[in-house]
C-alpha cells in the first residue's frame, strides 16, 4: 500500500474505536446500571488511553510526511489527521486519561446533584474537571488564549473575541424584541392538561420518521438530557417526556433528529474517516435548530402536528391550528435553556458563554459560580433562580469538560438563519409540503448543501457555499422579528 493508504487504514481503526467509546457514553446515559459508575470510569479511561496512543503514534507523522493525496477530498483527510495528530501530541496521555475518568465520575455526580438540587454535591468534581481542563487548555494554547484553544475542538477557526462581537450585535435586538413581546397585549396560554407518555412517544416516533431519521440505523431512547450519539450506520438519539408539556418531547426529538440526520446523510465514502462527521458543532447545531424551529415550529408544520395530536389525544384544549401555532411558539420567561423559546434561547447561551470564559481564564471559581449565574440570570431575565436544578445545575456540559461548546448553540442559530433565508429563496412550495407533514423539500436541500459533505469544508466555507454569503446574524434577527411580530401583533 502507499503511505496514504496505510495511514487511512490505520485511521479507520482509530475512528472505529472512537465510535465504541461513544457507545459507552450513550450506554452510560441511557441503560447503564446506577452502581456501575466507578467501573465505567475505569473503562472510559482505559479506552481513552488506547485512543490517545493511536492518535500520537509516531508512524502518523511518518505517513503524513510521505503521503500524497489522490484528490481534493484526500487532501482534506490529511489536513484533519494532521490537525488531530499535532493537537493530541500536546496533551500528555496521563492528562487525557485523567479527564476521561474524571468526567465519567463527574457526570454521575452532576446527575445526582441535579436530582437533589444541591450544587455542593457537584462542586468538588466540577473543580477537578475545571483544573484538568485548564491544564489541557494551557498545553494546547502554547502561550495563547486558553478559551480559544478549547474552542477549536468544537468550532475550528473561531475565537472568543470574534464570537463576542457577533453576540454583541445580537444582544440589543434580542433584548428589545423580548421586551416588545412580553409587553404585548396578546396572552398566549400554555397547553394545560396531562398528555400520557405513550401518546407522546408515539408522536415522537412519527416526527422522527417525518424528518427523515432512519430507524434501521438508529434508535430512540429516553435520557435526562436529550442527545444524539454516533455517526454513519449507527446513530442514536434520546428524548424525554414531561406529563404537562408534550412539546418538550416533540421538539427534543426533532432537534436530535437534526443532529442524527446530518450524521446519517454524510457521503458513505467518508464512513469511518476524519471527514465522516459534521463540519463543526456550530454547523451541527444549525441542522438541529433549523429542523426544530424554522421547519418544526413553522405555521405550516404545526398545522400538521396539531392534527396528529388530535388523532392521538382527542380534544386537548386548543381550539384550532392558529392557536396551536401560537402555543408552540409561546414566549415566556423560563429557567431552562432547552425549553426556551426562540426569543430567549440565545440569551441563555450568552450567559453560559460569558461564565465559562471566566471559569477557564480563572476570573471565576467554582465556589462562586452559583452566585454569578443567579445574578446574571436576574439581570437578563428579570427573575430570581429558585433552585439549582433550574440554574447552574441544569446542563450536563461542564461535567463532561465541554468548555467551548456552549457558544456553538448560538452560532448554530446564526447559521440556521442564513440557511433558512437561502433555502426559502431557492425551494418553491416549501410551506405547502410542510403543511402535509412532508419535510423532504427542505431536508433534501439541507442534505445536498450541508450534510453530505461531512467535514469536507471548513465551517464558514461550508455555510458560504450553501448560501452564497458569509455568515451573518442579520437573517436570524429578521426571521425572529418577523415571526414573533406576527404572533404577538407587534
UniProtKB/TrEMBL annotation:
Any single GO molecular-function term of the entry would be:
metal ion binding
What the record says about family reads: Belongs to the peptidase M32 family.
Q: What does this protein do?
A: Broad specificity carboxypetidase that releases amino acids sequentially from the C-terminus, including neutral, aromatic, polar and basic residues.
Enzyme Commission number(s) of this protein: 3.4.17.19
Record's catalysed reaction(s): Release of a C-terminal amino acid with broad specificity, except for -Pro
Species of the source: Boseongicola aestuarii
- Record-given protein name: Metal-dependent carboxypeptidase
Keywords carried by this UniProt record? Carboxypeptidase, Hydrolase, Metal-binding, Metalloprotease, Protease, Zinc
GO BP annotations of the record are: proteolysis
Catalytic residues, per the record, are 256 (proton donor/acceptor)
Q: Where does Zn(2+) bind?
A: 255, 259, 285
Q: What class of enzyme is it?
A: hydrolase
According to the record, the signal peptide region is none
Q: How is the cofactor bound?
A: Binds 1 zinc ion per subunit.
The cofactor(s) it depends on are: Zn(2+)
Amino acid at each position: 500500500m502507499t503511505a496514504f493508504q496505510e495511514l487511512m487504514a490505520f485511521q479507520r481503526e482509530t475512528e472505529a474505536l472512537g465510535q465504541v467509546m461513544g457507545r459507552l457514553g450513550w450506554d452510560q446515559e441511557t441503560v447503564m446500571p446506577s452502581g456501575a459508575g466507578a467501573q465505567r470510569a475505569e473503562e472510559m479511561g482505559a479506552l481513552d488511553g488506547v485512543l490517545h496512543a493511536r492518535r500520537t503514534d509516531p508512524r502518523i507523522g511518518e505517513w503524513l510526511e510521505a503521503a500524497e493525496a489522490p484528490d481534493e477530498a484526500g487532501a482534506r483527510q490529511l489536513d484533519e489527521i494532521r490537525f488531530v495528530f499535532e493537537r493530541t501530541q500536546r496533551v500528555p496521555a496521563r492528562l487525557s486519561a485523567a479527564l476521561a475518568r474524571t468526567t465519567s465520575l463527574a457526570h454521575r455526580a452532576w446527575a445526582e446533584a441535579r436530582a437533589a438540587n444541591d450544587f455542593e454535591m457537584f462542586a468538588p468534581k466540577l473543580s477537578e474537571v475545571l483544573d484538568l481542563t485548564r491544564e489541557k487548555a494551557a498545553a494546547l494554547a502554547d502561550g495563547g488564549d486558553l478559551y480559544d484553544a478549547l474552542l477549536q475542538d468544537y468550532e475550528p477557526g473561531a475565537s472568543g473575541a470574534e464570537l463576542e462581537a457577533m453576540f454583541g450585535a445580537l444582544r440589543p435586538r434580542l433584548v428589545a424584541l423580548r421586551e416588545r413581546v412580553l409587553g404585548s397585549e396578546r396572552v398566549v396560554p400554555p397547553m394545560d392538561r396531562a398528555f400520557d407518555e405513550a401518546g407522546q412517544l408515539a408522536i415522537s416516533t412519527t416526527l422522527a420518521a417525518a424528518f427523515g431519521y432512519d430507524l434501521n440505523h438508529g434508535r430512540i431512547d429516553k435520557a435526562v438530557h436529550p442527545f444524539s450519539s454516533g455517526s454513519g450506520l449507527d446513530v442514536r438519539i434520546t428524548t424525554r417526556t414531561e406529563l404537562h408539556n408534550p412539546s418538550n418531547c416533540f421538539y427534543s426529538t426533532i432537534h436530535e433528529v437534526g443532529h442524527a440526520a446530518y450524521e446519517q446523510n454524510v457521503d458513505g465514502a467518508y464512513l469511518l474517516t476524519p471527514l465522516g462527521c459534521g463540519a463543526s458543532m456550530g454547523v451541527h447545531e444549525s441542522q438541529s435548530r433549523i429542523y426544530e424551529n424554522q421547519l418544526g415550529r413553522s405555521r405550516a408544520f404545526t398545522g400538521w402536528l396539531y392534527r396528529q395530536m388530535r388523532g392521538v389525544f382527542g380534544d386537548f384544549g386548543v381550539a384550532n391550528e392558529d392557536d396551536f401555532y401560537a402555543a408552540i411558539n409561546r414566549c415566556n420567561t423560563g429557567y431552562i435553556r432547552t425549553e426556551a423559546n426562540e426569543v430567549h434561547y440565545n440569551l441563555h447561551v450568552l450567559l453560559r458563554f460569558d461564565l465559562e470564559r471566566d471559569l477557564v481564564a480563572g476570573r471565576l471559581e467554582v465556589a462562586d459560580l452559583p452566585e454569578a449565574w443567579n445574578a446574571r440570570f436576574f439581570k437578563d431575565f428579570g427573575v430570581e433562580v429558585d433552585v439549582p436544578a433550574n440554574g447552574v445545575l441544569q446542563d450536563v456540559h461542564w461535567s463532561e469538560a465541554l468548555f467551548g461548546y456552549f457558544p456553538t448553540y448560538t452560532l448554530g442559530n446564526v447559521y440556521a438563519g442564513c440557511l433558512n433565508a437561502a433555502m426559502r429563496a431557492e425551494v418553491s412550495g416549501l410551506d405547502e409540503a410542510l403543511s402535509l407533514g412532508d419535510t423532504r423539500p427542505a431536508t433534501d436541500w439541507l442534505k445536498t448543501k450541508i450534510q453530505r459533505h461531512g467535514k469536507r469544508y471548513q465551517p464558514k466555507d461550508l455555510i458560504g457555499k450553501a448560501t452564497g454569503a458569509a455568515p451573518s446574524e442579520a437573517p436570524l434577527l429578521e426571521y425572529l422579528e418577523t415571526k414573533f411580530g406576527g404572533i404577538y401583533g407587534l
